[in-house]
User: Fold this.
Amino acid sequence: MLRVALVLAVLSTAVAAGGSVASSSATLRLVPVVRSLASPVLATHAPGEPGRLYVVEQPGRIRIVERGRLRARPFLDIRSLVAYGGEQGLLGLAFSPQYARDHTFYVNYTARPDGATKVVRYRARNGRALPGSAQQILRIDQPYANHNGGNVVFGPDGKLWVGMGDGGSGGDPENRAQNPDSLLGKLLRLDVRQASPTPEIVAIGLRNPWRFTFDRKTKDLWIGDVGQGAIEEIDHLPRGTTGLVNFGWDVYEGRSSFENKALGPGRLVQPVAEYTHDDGCSVTGGYVYRGTSIPRLRGRYVFGDYCSGTIWSMPATGGALRVEPIRVPELTSFGESLNGAQLYVVSQSGTVSRIAG
Assistant:
């Protein structure tokens, strides 16, 4: 997802499934929460700790913001283990749903020396991770340095969902995304109750699902899948979807043909929204906002673009994209408070802010 260079794009017209873009004169604003971070890529909370915001720094640290202040001592520092640069680094963090009791959490990073993806379980004590508790639960070799995916999220099923990019280069030259025998270009889930869980493939045909989330109300899945050279897409899976699904890459980029070849297995699921590179170049998936403190966004899926800094929203029930009146250059991630009342945005330039309306 992360681009080496920041592209400041001028907005034109994006196209969404079911309608065209609508603008709004209503005011939203950004309230800085913390500054001076080192390439932050994720902000999240741990169950049972509503007053602490955990921020992932791409070089390999997890920081804690408490009572508006950044703790000097990191929660976790694995910079010596992380291959960092470009799209590589410490990319994902998920706390166990029972964290208040079991104190376990999971990280996703590209590892030294070869850049392989690792998902590792840790335990914490007294507000700090225990480095000696590390247990690797998944390792996937990476043929190139880009398209690593990196997100890890606990789903409504209690399993850990892992987003894997197609392995990199450009155009998926070895056809990994459509190959059911490869774990690259896939959405996986792991039963972490097992010591060495076997990854289950839920979906194939993804290029780089940098950020995905579950709607806290409906439990539907929303994915921002980064495009190749023309189209960025938003994918959606309703709760209860069964059987293998195929998001189409690299037979399709968005809903447009990309390569003339046969689809792999699984039911084809096409995007619910897309926009072209006139409007950005790297989608950052977000959240369906279910809080009440930002009435303008309630019930809408909120997402953005790393390159242009544009933020859009769309009704979770379907409909047109709407350009929101705030902009976040180098937008790497969204976050939400533990109860969903607050929505955060993360800029790789070093700032985490709260959206206020």
Observations:
- Residues 9 and 243 are 39 Å apart (CA to CA).
- The chain is about 0% helix and 40% strand.
- The longest helix spans residues 99-102.
